[in-house]
Amino acid sequence: MNIKLHVFDERVYDVIDPYAQLEVIVPDMHLTEGAVWDYENDRLLFNDIPVSNTMSWTEKDGAKVIYNNHNKANGQCFDPQGRLVVCEHASSHLSRCTSDGMNYEVLATHYKGIEINSPNDVICRSDGMIYFTDPAYGRQNKPAGIGRPIPSDMRPVYIFDPETKELRIGADCFANPNGLCFFRDEKTLLVNDSPNYRIMAFDVAEDGALSNGREFARTSQIGQDDTVPDGMKIDELENVFCCGPDGLRIYDKAGTELGILMISHLDTALNLTWGGADGRDLFITCIGSVLRTRTKHRGYAHIQYLEGIFPRKA
Predict the structure, then answer these.
(1) Residue 52 and residue 291: Cα distance in Å, rounded?
(2) How far apart are CA 30 and CA 260, in angstroms?
(3) DSSP H helical ranges for 15-99
(4) What is the mean pLDDT of the segment spanning 240-246?
(5) Residue 254 backbone phi and psi in degrees, to 5
(6) Assuming Cys at both sites, which of 74, 108, 149, 235 could form a disulfide with 297, CB separation 3.0 to 4.6 Å?
(7) pLDDT tens digits, 52-94
(8) How many whole angstroms separate alpha carbon 37 and alpha carbon 50?
(9) How high is the mean pLDDT of the chain?
């Protein structure tokens, strides 16, 4: 079927063709998240959180379970060595493994003796520094979580140094932080503050520290959808794609909302990534399915792969 665009600014047509097709490539899921394109194996990886399945999808073989991650894995990303860094809701761990689930290791569990809440989404800087959001969502008695006490009042973005194993707070000014992404120069980090329907921007220092938090954009609500801002990525021109109310929100680099790729409330967009041979296939993980469409520009992850950043080429 054709995509449906809600247009705020006609520049959205420079980003996505209004006649592009939107197709369901993986039906009958529970709640999918953690979309990443595995360039080394030419496949989409994602997590079906409630049943703890880490899945793959290829054009040839469709979807299949790679392994059961046991801990309701949510957001994930590749580090420069090609390993998956994974947010686990059930265990409240940040972990790392190879893309087949082997060589599993726990990276972070506590901050200053206090258990972290429930790592939700994660990204790696090109030098390997890891940033992850730590809301309380995974401690709710819902399919994507396990109801249990929340250990503290903090809802931070954490920074983990895989070399020194140091865990520090980057920012703690959120009701509940969620999706996050860098701009191309990695000097600005965007973070969703989901309950407040806003995207925050932070300056990133060379040592990884965050400062100068300010509002980058807000996600408008045009319907009755109660979805909050969730997964977020940029394309090669630094247009920002953010899952949120009514579908996939598209912003320019200055924070102007260009339009919404509308997603049915029966699916609900939760996260996204680009992939495919030319980097223009846009995959959207949803509550009940995984969707695919095409954009006019490549995802920035495709550029990072071509430049030998993720995974790092010798």
Answers:
(1) 20
(2) 24
(3) none
(4) 94
(5) -85, -5
(6) 235
(7) 999 999 999 999 999 999 999 999 999 999 999 999 999 999 9
(8) 21
(9) 96
- The token duo for 168 is 């520090």
pLDDT at 229 over 80: yes
Residue showing tokens 């409330």: 265
Residue 77 is encoded by which pair of tokens?
A: 């990303």
Amino acid at 189: L
Is a pLDDT exceeding 90 seen at residue 221? Answer: no
What sign has the CA pseudo-torsion 261, 301, 254, 173?
positive
- Structural element, H or E, at residue 2: none
Give the chain's radius of gyration (CA, Å): 18
**3-class secondary structure for 238-276?**
CCEEEEECCEEEEECCCCCEEEEEECCCCCCEEEEEEEC
Q: What does the alpha-carbon distance between residue 280 and residue 202 come to, in Å, rounded to a whole number?
A: 28
Per the DSSP assignment, residues forming a β-bridge with 6 are: 260
Show the 3-state SS of 141-198. Answer: CCCCCCCCCCCCCCCCEEEECCCCCCEEEEECCCCCEEEEEECCCCCEEEEEEHHHCE
Cis peptide before 119 (omega within 30 of 0): no
Q: Are 237 and 296 in contact (CB under 8 A)?
A: no
Please name the helix (run of DSSP H) or strand (run of DSSP E) that holds residue 106, with its range, or none: strand 105-108
Query: From CA 215, how far away is CA 201, in angstroms rounded?
Result: 6
C-alpha distances (whole Å) from 208 to each of 107, 163, 259 are 18, 13, 32
Q: CA 83, 283, 176, 108: dihedral to nearest 10 degrees?
A: -10
Give the angle 23-83-59 at the CA atoms, nearest 5°.
25
The string of pLDDT tens digits covering residues 260-270 is: 999 986 689 99
Mean pLDDT of 117-133: 98
Residue 39's pLDDT band (boundaries 50, 70, 90)? very high
Average pLDDT for residues 243-255, to the nearest whole number?
95
CB atoms under 10 Å from CB of 307, counted, come to 11
Q: Which amino acid is at 123?
A: I
**Using an 8 Å Cβ cutoff, are 87 and 132 in contact?**
yes
